[in-house]
Amino acid sequence: MEQRIADSLKILTEADKEACETVRVSENEPLSGKKRLFIESYGCQMNFSDSEIVASVMRDAGFVTTSDANNADLIFLNTCSIRDNAEQKVRNRLKQLNFIKKNRPGTLIGVLGCMAERLKTKFLEEEKMVDIVTGPDAYRDLPRLVEEAETGQKGVNVFLSREETYADISPIRLNSNGVSAFISIMRGCDNMCSFCVVPFTRGRERSRDAYSIVKEAEDLFRDGYREVTLLGQNVDSYKWKSEGNVVGETSGQMLVNFANLLEMVAQISPELRVRFSTSHPKDITDEVLYTIKKYDNICNHIHLPAQSGNTRVLEIMNRTYTREWYIDRIDAIRRILGDDCGVSHDMIAGFCTETEEEHRDSISLMEYARFDFGYMFTYSERPGTLAAKKFSDDIPEDIKKRRLAEIIEVQRRLSLERNQRLLGTVQRVLIEGPSKKSDEDLSGRSDQNKMVVFPRENYEKGQYVNVLITDCNAATLLGRVLQPELVLG
Ligand code: SAH
Ligand code: SF4
Ligand code: F3S
Question: Torsion angle of alpha carbons 448, 453, 457, 462, nearest 10°?
Answer without folding.
Answer: 40
